[in-house]
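Internal tracking record. Fields below are filled automatically when a chain is submitted to the structure queue. Please do not edit lines marked as system-generated. If the sequence contains nonstandard residues, flag them in the REMARKS field before resubmitting.
Queue: standard
Priority: normal
Entity type: single polypeptide chain
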Amino acid sequence: MGCSLCFAGLKAVIFVTGVCDEDCYYCPIDMSRWGRPVIYVNEERATDLDSVIAEVQRQGARGASITGGDPLADLPLVLRLIRSLKYVMGDGFHVHLYTPGRHATPDALVALWRAGLDEIRFHPVKREYYRAIELAAKLTGMRVGAEIPIAPGLEGWAMEVIRAVEEAGGSFVNMNEMEFSDSNFQRLRLRGLRPSRSRYPAVEGALEAALRVMRWASENSRVTVHYCPASYKGLIQVRNRFRVTARRDLRWFEAPTRDGLVVRGEVLRDGEVVGYFNPREPPRPEEGLEYRVLVSYP
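SYSTEM-GENERATED OUTPUT FOLLOWS
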């Protein structure tokens, strides 16, 4: 359910903290967030949980993904967030969470489940974190799986994770196409990885690596394995989220575009905004007035 809502632009993306005790060379998180106790929702800075809920409502979201950093580095905040989302948006509001597993103790996992978490996706960068997958599957009623990056050279790790998820009683593994960002560019290049010439910011060869793993999994595992290309976020996920938000949040002088952006008309006199107009209904020109159309995110 989480992926289908994401595809439709109906999942809010909530970044709850940049704090994380891992040091993954491929982490794409911007350095302005890394290691800092900051909150973002749909890429907008939030000051508190009330502002998070307000943005989720504005979007018209039917679910949320909680990410970081490692969200479990601030478990009390995450529990309050999940309870607030379920209270305001209803029990049917689907919430999934990403975590490496370092802080996924039995008590933490049960607390997340009781708070209303529907699905947990582990990023087990260390073998000892496989135990957290097993605990989540045994102690809770959440949907349990893993989500990992894929690139050339990581096929063996991906197969190992698939085996571990199956043995632990999990049900799925998602592979995300590794991508370049400002924060990881040098570290990826030092490992010999290159940006795809035709599909930037994807890593060259990541698609082929994913296909090799999926072919292996189809013959060797009962776990469902998904692959998510880097282009999916910008071309589908984010664009659909913009479209959903724009349809709900338009003012009379604004109109949506096919890409999910918003255009608005402004009337100016001597460089100052003195009125507005709908770009789809341009006004009759008047002497002394200027007219402009601006494009923005919803």
